[in-house]
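Morning, I've got a small favour to ask if you have a moment. I owe you a coffee for this, so here goes:
>
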Amino acid sequence: MSKNEINNKGFAAIMALLLVISLVLVVSFSVTIIIVNENQIDKNLVISAQSYYSAESGVEDGLLRIINSDYNYTVLNNFDLDGSAIVQNIIESGNSTIVESSSSYLGNERKIKTELIITTDDISFHYGVQVGEGGLVMGNNSSISGNLYSDGPVSGSGTIEGDLTVATGMSLDANGVWDTHDDDLMFGEDEEPTDIAMSFTPTSTGILSQVSFYVKNSSPVHGSGTIKIAEDNAGSPSTIAIAEDTFLSSKIGSAYGWANFSFSSPVNLTGGNTYWIIIDLNSENKKHFSIGRGQWNANSVSKHSSDWSSGSWTTDAAGDYNYKAWIGGLSTSVDGLIIEGDVYAHEISNTKVCGDAYYQTIDSDSSDFLNNPTDSYCNLPLTPGVGYSGSPDPPIASLPISDSNIADWKAEAFAYGTLSSSLCDASSDMIINGGKLICTGEKGFNPDISAKITLKGTLWVVGNITLENNSVLMLDSDYGENSGVVIADNPENESTSGKILVENGIVICGSQGLNVAESGCADSVGSYILMLSTHSGTDPSYAVEVRNNASGAIFYAHNGTAHIKNGADLKEVTAYKLSLEENAKVKYESGLADASFTSGPGAGWLIADWNEIQ
């Protein structure tokens, strides 16, 4: 081998070695860079996570201070948490409160926002007075300023300063009841039926005036839909509705209860024929409602579908859905009143109508006055009214509060806890955060002389409520434009207990509070206390009895009679049956059409939104 060949081989070996070393160095450097970067990434992730969770801690701290009334959230300060600088910001707008929290840890900033809303139940009181099947009796010189809608007869000698509507009478159909509750069907959820239907064969011909469902809302967000009536088509509902009305989710709470729905344009059903009552939910509903279901009823069949209009139905083999159906057509009447507006009733007698009259029958005295009104009863200018003989009876108007609403409010009160029985005869000014109060005495919840009671949450009194001795009942100012609820309800004995008595000298106010100089409520801000009784005793056992002016209260007798004494002056009364003594007055306030009730400023919060914004 020549010397040149040896030198070439040595050079090649050295080059190969250098290449290997270079490759090793490159690989080692690359691995080192990767490891360093991975470590930095991991470190950044830890820093970022620290900032994120610190920002969440800031939000949670803000929520605690807002929801818990023991804290003052208006004075939130920036603070440090394990080296993270946290900055909080609160933005209020109506019933909505936004909490923003940003955190900076080692230069890494994260920001989170959440929105709280005060949950409310929107209950519409569209009439100065609304009365159920028990009807209304008015004393001499009593008056209602506003419209009156009654599902029962109206009589007496008072004045309606508005329109009067007396709906057709109704009765529960013998075949239209299925209330056995063994289990439930959820509808409106993903992969669940959207629409449900119950077959119904009325025992006699008449108008389908009202239907009821034993339902609950299974989601904090209310859905919407329509109640439809369809004829039978080979054992399933027809795809053509013969009547329909809105499925009002505001009547359906998170606890089971019966919710009544009436039809603004009711349909006449033929006895012995089969019809279908359908709940058609809108397609965007997700997991909204549950209906009670019971084992087979020989007179009924229940079905469900993803779309009622497709005509494709599945029979529910587990049982039938809980419902009730009322057939109308019973005669009702108005007798002996002065009506400054129009009248809608089956029968009109001994009544002075200043407007027009819609009726089936009218007596000669009422007809003569309709044609020749006088200024001693009617406002000027005087013009003869028009009589519309043969007019159809007005439809039933279901009362605005359902059993399910009441069950929800009682649950809200119970969530505050059971209160000490010493509060039953509270002897001094105090704040009640809400709760369940058991009062066994005859007077029940009966504050002492001049005691001022401020409510910060829903109050459920198991027993009676007696307000006397110049005491004051009002809402905390934090309610704002919202209204609160006080319930008198004894579930074990509704026939003798759960009554409300308001004596002379009592002041009941919403969140506007007192006007001490005038010994009454300050100017209204649209906030009221709903005083609700579930007492079901018959007269003269009154569910609600009011002997005093109460401008800040809405009185509601769910199952019994509300009796308004001589000289009382109120804003709104709703009752199964109502009795107004002479000189009693109800002056309707228009804002009651959009009243919103909440369980309390500290207990009605719902997290509507929670997300990272930076």
